[in-house]
């Protein structure tokens, strides 16, 4: 017969069988060994999360510094798209959604919130699925969207942002998008806008196509805008806005990873404390049981004599 | 081309104003978005490259000379709204206090909006003093070698762009600004 006694107050939720203070196995050393093994593994996990936190803190500091310069640059570029008035075109729209994610996980919900945002739009019954394409920057968005919407993937880009992002990366992506041959009416970049070290918002940045800009009423006020200049301007602006959005996203990702790893380290610390207490109690229980056995054995011998 | 050159002279009259008045008008604009008063301080100038910011909505700028694909142009406050593409060359920024700062830009875009905000976005930009003339000469000969070895139109065009850029950098480093 075996029955489970929960160690009072120490372990409210035994994670698996190893942690159960099983009266039948207190006697042998296996439980003690199991606990010490678990303790060791949690400790090494803590070491990993701790160093990951340190690495991302350094990366975050760099990203934040670079973002400050990129922001002023990006704000100017993006204001061009935001301020231009475009008329709504009737009929089915061709749309491109650019998912600015990264290759790596372990950064909280930074990547998944972008994927969720896009998937919500793709699964919307009103959405014109045939006319919507996704550009997946980073392995995470590709993996997340390929499962359900493989037909909608236009481009996927990885290995971006391994080292810190430069303008050349963004312009290469813009180049790919332009030469992909998909003529979109509108495009949106879905990215995490960095707010502070602990907060970001998943936002969208509108991008206008060449035609939309050329047909816009507000473009008329600009002098001597021949098609060639406008096209170069738009392409450069696309790269600039892309660069800015990706920079924001990279900073959010690093800060999010920093927070996630900080939490993981704290949780591991808590688990270590619990396990250490549990380990010591179990050890004492084993000693006590052994003592009782010896004493009662001796007493039984004495009674015989 | 010719049109761009004439734009050089547009509204030069607004440039010379009493500095006190300018200061006041800047203040009123900040508080109550007063209508354009015609002073040079109305220009909000932003000049940035992806990795560096030189001016952010700066009001202390009188005139900016930029090299564009359609010719060099000088921009003062209340310039006609334009969109333009930069070519390699020197951007000169004339500040209100008489200082002139010169930057080398490789490429980029210029936008002058109807509200007199000027946005100069360069792919790469640096102060003229930082140009390494020797490195520019090296880049030039390297690009010329590649132009000779170019197999298709694309490579040729890329090499040509590099040559233009290197030549402009050499010119800028030697003190020729236009």
Automatic annotation (TrEMBL), chain A:
Bilayer topology term: Peripheral membrane protein
InterPro entries in the cross-refs: ATP_synth_F1_ATPase_gsu, ATP_synth_F1_gsu, ATP_synth_F1_gsu_CS
Record SUPFAM superfamilies: ATP synthase (F1-ATPase), gamma subunit (SSF52943)
Superkingdom of origin organism: Eukaryota
Keyword Mitochondrion on entry: yes
Assigned keywords, A-Z: ATP synthesis, CF(1), Hydrogen ion transport, Ion transport, Membrane, Mitochondrion, Mitochondrion inner membrane, Transport
PROSITE patterns xrefs: ATPASE_GAMMA
GO MF entries: proton-transporting ATP synthase activity, rotational mechanism
One cellular component (GO) term of this entry: mitochondrial inner membrane
Cross-referenced Gene3D superfamilies: 3.40.1380.10, ATP synthase, gamma subunit, helix hairpin domain
UniProt subcellular location: Mitochondrion inner membrane
Transmembrane segments: none
Family designation: Belongs to the ATPase gamma chain family.
Protein name: ATP synthase subunit gamma, mitochondrial
Organism of provenance: Rotaria sordida
TrEMBL record, chain B:
InterPro entries: ATP_synth_F1_dsu/esu, ATP_synth_F1_dsu/esu_N, ATPsynth_dsu/esu_N
PANTHER family assigned: ATP SYNTHASE DELTA/EPSILON CHAIN, ATP SYNTHASE SUBUNIT DELTA, MITOCHONDRIAL
UniProt similarity note: Belongs to the ATPase epsilon chain family.
Naturally occurring in which organism (per UniProt): Rotaria sordida
Protein name: F-ATPase delta subunit
Subcellular location: Mitochondrion inner membrane
Coiled-coil ranges per UniProt: 140-169
Superkingdom, natural source: Eukaryota
Entries under Pfam families matching the protein: ATP-synt_DE_N (PF02823)
Keyword Transit peptide attached: yes
GO cellular component, one term: mitochondrial inner membrane
Family annotation (CDD domains): F1-ATPase_delta
A GO molecular function held by the record: proton-transporting ATP synthase activity, rotational mechanism
Keywords for the protein's UniProt record, in alphabetical order: ATP synthesis, CF(1), Coiled coil, Hydrogen ion transport, Ion transport, Membrane, Mitochondrion, Mitochondrion inner membrane, Transit peptide, Transport
SUPFAM superfamilies linked: Epsilon subunit of F1F0-ATP synthase N-terminal domain
Domain ATP synthase F1 complex delta/epsilon subunit N-terminal: 46-125
């Amino acid at each position: 017969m075996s029955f489970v006694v929960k160690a009072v107050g120490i372990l409210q939720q035994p994670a698996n069988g190893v942690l159960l203070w099983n009266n039948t196995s207190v006697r042998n050393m296996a439980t003690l060994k199991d606990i010490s093994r678990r303790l060791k593994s949690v400790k090494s996990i803590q070491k990993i999360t701790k160093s990951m936190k340190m690495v991302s803190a350094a990366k975050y500091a760099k990203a934040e510094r670079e973002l400050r310069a990129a922001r002023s640059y990006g704000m100017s570029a993006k204001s061009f798209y935001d301020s231009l008035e475009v008329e709504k075109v009737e009929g089915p729209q061709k749309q491109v959604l650019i998912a600015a994610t990264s290759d790596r996980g372990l950064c909280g919900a930074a990547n998944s919130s972008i994927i969720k945002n896009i998937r919500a739009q793709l699964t919307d019954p009103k959405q014109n699925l045939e006319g919507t394409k996704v550009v997946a920057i980073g392995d995470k968005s590709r993996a997340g969207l390929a499962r359900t919407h493989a037909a909608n993937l236009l481009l996927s880009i990885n290995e971006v942002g391994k080292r810190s992002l430069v303008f050349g990366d963004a312009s290469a992506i813009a180049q790919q998008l332009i030469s992909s041959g998909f003529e979109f009416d509108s495009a949106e970049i879905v990215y995490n806008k960095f707010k502070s070290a602990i907060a970001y918002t998943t936002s969208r940045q509108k991008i206008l196509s060449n035609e939309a800009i050329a047909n816009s009423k507000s473009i008329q006020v600009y002098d001597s805008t021949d098609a060639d200049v406008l096209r170069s301007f738009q392409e450069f602006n696309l790269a600039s806005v892309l660069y800015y959005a990706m920079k924001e996203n990279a900073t959010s990702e690093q800060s999010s990873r920093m927070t996630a790893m900080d939490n993981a380290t704290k949780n591991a610390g808590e688990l270590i404390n619990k396990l250490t207490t549990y380990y010591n109690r179990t050890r004492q229980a084993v000693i006590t049981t052994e003592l009782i056995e010896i004493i009662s054995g001796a007493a039984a011998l004495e009674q015989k004599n | 081309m010719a049109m761009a050159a004439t734009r050089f002279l547009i509204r030069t009259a607004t440039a010379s104003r009493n500095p006190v008045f300018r200061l006041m008008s800047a203040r009123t604009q900040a508080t109550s978005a007063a209508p354009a008063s015609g002073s040079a301080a109305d220009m909000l100038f932003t000049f940035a490259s992806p990795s560096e910011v030189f001016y952010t909505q700066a009001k202390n700028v009188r005139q900016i000379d930029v090299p564009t694909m359609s010719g060099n142009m000088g921009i003062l406050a209340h310039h006609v709204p334009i969109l333009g593409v930069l070519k390699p060359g020197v951007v000169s920024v004339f500040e209100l206090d008489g200082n002139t700062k010169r930057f080398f830009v490789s490429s980029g875009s210029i936008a002058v909006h109807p509200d007199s905000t000027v946005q100069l976005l360069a792919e790469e930009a640096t102060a003229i003093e930082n140009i390494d003339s020797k490195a520019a000469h090296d880049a030039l000969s390297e690009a010329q070698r590649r132009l000779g070895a170019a197999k298709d139109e694309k490579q040729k065009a890329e090499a040509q762009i590099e040559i233009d850029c290197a030549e402009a950098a050499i010119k800028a480093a030697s003190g020729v600004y236009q």
